[in-house]
Amino acid sequence: MLRRLVAGLAAIVLVAEAAVLVLVHIVLGRTTANQSMSIAGSDPDVMSKATYAMGAGMGAFLVLCAVLAAVAAIRDRSPGRFGRVVLIGAAVTHAVLGILAVGLVGWAAFATLMLILCLLVLILTLYPAARHGDDGDAGGDPGADAPPLPPTPPYGELKPTSP
User: Fold this and answer.
1) Per-residue pLDDT reduced to its tens digit, 53-67
2) Confidence of residue 158 (pLDDT cuts 50, 70, 90)
3) Closest listed residue to residue 61, CA positions, set 1, 17, 99, 28
4) Helix H segments across 36-151?
5) Which pTM does this prediction carry?
6) d(CA 57, CA 144)
7) DSSP per residue over 5-61, as a string?
8) What's the pLDDT tens digit per position in 107-155?
């Protein structure tokens, strides 16, 4: 129940974050185009279009993360290998942006980014990682041929190894 709630809430928050970031990049792109700003002689048209492209790319990435979280919530299963890699990438990105946001934007932005980071980490930790053989692969468990470990001795029979 908690896993589905966290994954669903993360999906909603990620879609909202994607919408806000796309809107911010649209405003930045229009401002760059309207002011004819250039940095070190670069073309303002290229800068504004690059800003639009970056906003679209970030929005698409966050929507992909939201879809993966929503699928995990609906199925109540762990995201696959690709999904986990994407969500880990999003978590690392939010951690780095949170560090930068403290100095550049303020504590409110830091708190928001850390909230989203916590939701992503909760998705990754509440759903156990799928085993290698559970995805329908014929490979099976790579450690299946290893001999079993010997039983641990009772507490009283443990001896120190250093002299």
Assistant:
1) 999 999 999 999 999
2) low
3) 17
4) 44-75, 81-104, 107-126
5) 0.75
6) 42
7) HHHHHHHHHHHHHHHHHHHHHHHHHHHHHHHT--STT--HHHHHHHHHHHHHHHHHH
8) 999 999 999 999 999 999 998 876 655 444 444 455 556 777 777 766 6
Residue 80: its H or E element:
none
Helix (H) or strand (E) holding 140: none
Q: How far apart are CA 94 and CA 87, in angstroms?
A: 10
CA distance 18 to 116: 12
Please choose, from the candidates 84, 99, 109, the residue with its C-alpha nearest in 3D space to the C-alpha of residue 17. Answer: 109
pLDDT digits (tens, 9 = 90+) for 67-91: 999 999 999 998 999 999 999 999 9
Calpha distance 122→4 (Å, rounded): 11
* Radius of gyration for the alpha carbons in the chain, expressed in angstroms and rounded: 23
> Rounded to whole angstroms, how far apart are CA atoms 55 and 65?
15
